[in-house]
Amino acid sequence: MSDPLLARLTPPDVGPDLARQVVDTFTTTTGPLGDVLVARSSEGVTYVRPVSDDGDHAGFRAEYRRRLGRPLVPDDAAVPAVGARTRVDLRACSPFERDVLDATASIPAGQTRPYGWVAREVGRPAAVRAVGTVLARNPVPLIVPCHRVTRADGSLGRYMLGEAAKARLLADEGADLERLAAFTTAGVVLVGSDTTGIACLPSCHHARRITDAHRVPFRSATAAREAGYRGCRVCRPGV
C-alpha cells in the first residue's frame, strides 16, 4: 500500500499489516466477465464491481464508504481472479442478508433456483421480495452467485450486471438455457419422474436424467404434491 491517504488515516507507528485491519483496500483483478474492482478487509473480499469504462474509481470508493462506512485506499498487491472459492467478509451485512447470501452460494454451478426457494432455505418463505432486494445489492457478485436465482416461472429475470451477463455466466457453467426456456414457455416449474415419484426443479442435475418417456410436467409444487410426488432431496423444490 503506497497511497498517501493511508498515512493520514493511521498512526505513524502502525505497520502495513496492522494498517490493513484499520483501512480497507482495493485493487483490480479478473473475473468471469472481465476486469473487476475488488475491495478487501483483513478478513476477505468485501465488495466487487466491474471496472467502469472511464477507469474512474471515485464512484466505487464513494459507494463503498456509503455502504460499509469505511475508507478505501488502493493496494498494489496481486489478487487472484475472483470466483466461488474466494474468501469473503460479510460482517457488514445483516444476519438476514448473510443468510440469503449463504443460501445463494449453495446453488450448484449451472443450476438455478427461484427467489422463493432462497426464501424457504432461510426460513422466511414469505420474504421473497426481501430476498430479491438483498440479491439486487449483493456486495460480492461473481463470488456469491446471484446470477443463479431466477423468477418463479423459471425465466432468468434481472441481474445487477445485466441480463446478457446473467445468461452468459449460466451458459459458461453448463446450463442448457434453451431447454430451461422451453419449460418456462410451457408453464412448467417442476418435472417429475414417473418411475421414482420424485419431482425436481428443471435445472437440477437429477431432472436432466429423466427421459422424455418418463417425464411428468407440473405447473406448481401443489400439483406435484397432489399427484403423489415427493420433492428431490438435492434441489428441494418445496413439494
First-to-last CA distance: 53 Å
Structural class: alpha/beta
Residue stretches low in confidence (pLDDT < 50, at least 5 long) are 1-16
CATH homologous superfamily annotation of the largest domain = Winged helix-like DNA-binding domain superfamily/Winged helix DNA-binding domain
| CATH C-level label of the largest domain | Mainly Alpha
Shape annotation: elongated
Strand content: 15-25%
CATH fold-type name of the largest domain: Arc Repressor Mutant, subunit A
Strand order of the largest sheet: 3-2-1-4
Q: Could you please describe the fold and organization of this structure?
A:
This protein has helices spanning 4-9, 16-22, 58-68, 95-105, 115-121, 128-136, 163-172, 177-185, 221-226; strands at 24-31, 34-40, 45-50, 72-74, 113-114, 149-150, 190-193, 198-200, 215-218, 230-231. The protein has 239 residues and is an alpha/beta fold. The chain has three domains: 21-74, Double Stranded RNA Binding Domain (2-Layer Sandwich), CATH 3.30.160; 93-178, Winged helix-like DNA-binding domain superfamily/Winged helix DNA-binding domain (Arc Repressor Mutant, subunit A), CATH 1.10.10; 188-239, no CATH class.
